[in-house]
Design brief:
By secondary structure, the protein is of the alpha+beta class. Helix content is 39%, strand content 19%. It has 13 helices and 19 strands. Helix 1 (21-33) crosses helix 6 (160-170) and helix 4 (116-128) crosses helix 8 (204-231).
Length: 416
């Protein structure tokens, strides 16, 4: 049971801990295997059930008895139940909170309790919605997040029964989430069908094996894509991408599609572009005179025999007020500011660019105005005081007090 797929290290390790059997087994197994290592449980209270806060404090007591500190992070404001796709909202908010905590406390690795059953369910869900090779590679053993935090899955080779057996042998309690048995959730429906699928030869182990095959192929394609991007120096420091048009047109269709996706996700990594949108963009760009268009919240236009791709200001999130604790802005930038005065982060915008032209015109790069409008900008009293992507810092704002980290790599376990 203590055969955990985790490279040895002595650095502190955060563990996403819901209180369910999987995460309880993971955090307790890690502590049992490496008792001298600092293991911190991070629990996110989504406040979606009336009992969630009580359960969070119960979990905290259970873990502290086992010398495992448990940090409770609360989603505030609460999630919008009317906005749709509550599960996706919860997942995004949960990871943003946990990664923000890790960054603030200098913890670089976050472990999650995904297991073999999760891998099989994910494979079926993505197969049902027509995912390609990358999507069917499902859950990676480890992945670097846009925030710079590494996600690891030490029990990805365990069956759920392994986790339950581990807890029962040691008398460790866990919380049963009643929503795990509701058929209104797609993952639950697939889980309920597993016995019938296994009887037809599609066991959890076999489905997970298929995912492994896809992951190997996806990694091969990822390496080719990454090498092409590096060779052509596609990503610019101003948060945009520039594909050489002729070289891109000569690439194999599969590679060309992956290059488009890589550029879009470099700019907006929160979710993966729809494959049909990528195919439409691919064919549109092969036209002799392609028109500017928006895909995945990004503007795509040709300029000087190059494909120019950048975030569109109209799709940027509203301004947020900053503190020294990192926050995710626009689902793509981790930001923080240690300045004592109130500072906000948002897109530079039309008025911000006009202010720069009046006061510091020399720092404005030769880039489309619509690109500059979308640059992450720190404001004090509506005046731009820092624009890290063009290395602008006002005399009232020290560079060392500002954090602005963007995703700059392509995840190989994203859907495609």
């Amino acid at each position: 049971m203590l055969n955990l797929m985790l490279p040895y290290s002595s650095e502190p390790l955060a563990v996403a801990t819901s209180g369910g059997s999987d995460s309880m087994a993971l955090v307790c197994a890690l502590k049992e295997r490496e008792p001298e290592r600092t293991i911190i449980a991070l629990h996110v209270d989504h406040r979606l059930r009336s009992s969630s806060t009580k359960e969070a404090h119960q979990l905290q007591k259970w873990l502290e008895v086992r010398s495992i500190p448990c940090i409770i992070l609360t989603i505030d404001p609460p999630l919008d139940r009317e906005a749709g796709n509550l599960a996706a909202q919860a997942r995004s908010a949960r990871y943003a909170l946990m990664e923000g905590w890790c960054m603030h406390h200098d913890v670089h690795v976050l472990a999650t309790a995904h297991h073999l059953g999760d891998q099989a369910e994910t494979f079926l869900m993505r197969l049902a919605r027509g995912s390609g090779v990358d999507g069917l590679s499902c859950i990676a053993q480890e992945r670097m997040q846009p925030s710079g935090i590494k996600l690891v899955r030490p029990i990805l080779h365990w069956h759920k029964e392994d986790a339950i057996s581990f807890l029962q042998q040691r008398g460790i309690p866990w919380i049963e989430d009643p929503t795990n048995h509701l058929s209104c959730y797609q993952r639950n429906r697939w889980r309920m069908m597993m016995p019938q699928l296994a009887a037809e030869g599609l066991s959890i182990a076999r489905l997970a094996r298929h995912a492994h095959h896809m992951a190997r192929l996806a990694d091969f394609m990822y390496q080719h894509t990454a090498a092409w991007l590096q060779q052509h120096k596609v990503f610019a420091p101003q948060a945009y991408a520039l594909l050489p048009y002729d070289a891109w047109c000569e690439a194999h269709e599969e590679l060309a599609l992956r290059l488009l996706r890589a550029c879009l996700m470099h700019i907006q990594p929160h979710k993966t572009p729809r494959f049909d949108a990528l195919e439409q963009l691919y064919h549109a760009l092969h036209n002799a005179a392609p028109k500017p268009q928006t895909v995945h919240g990004c503007m795509i236009r040709t300029r000087r025999n190059q494909i120019f791709m950048y975030r569109e200001m109209a799709h940027c999130s509203p301004h947020i007020t900053l503190s020294h604790i990192p926050q995710l802005w626009d689902n793509r930038v981790m930001v923080a500011c240690a300045a004592p005065s109130p500072v906000q982060c948002g897109a530079l915008g039309v008025h911000g660019l006009a202010w720069l032209r009046r006061h510091v015109p020399d720092i404005i790069p030769d880039l489309p105005a619509t690109l500059l409008h979308s640059l992450p900008t720190f404001f004090h009293l509506e005046e731009p005081i820092a624009i890290p992507h063009i290395d602008y810092y006002a005399h009232t704002c020290e560079k060392r007090n500002v954090m602005c980290l963007m995703h700059n790599s392509v995840g190989i376990d994203a859907e495609f």
